[in-house]
Amino acid sequence: MTEQEILDDLPPRSRRAYLALRDRIRTGKIEAGAKLPPFDSLAGQLGISPVTMRKVLLALQHAGWVSVEQGRGTFVQAVERPGVLVVEDDPVQRQLLRQQVEMAGYRTLEASSPTEGLAALKSEARFGLIISDVRMPDKASGVEFIRTVRHRWPNVPLAAVTAHPEDLSELHGTPDCPVLVLAKPVSRRQIEEAISLVFHAPVPN
Question: How confident is the model at residue 6, as a pLDDT?
Answer without folding.
Answer: 85
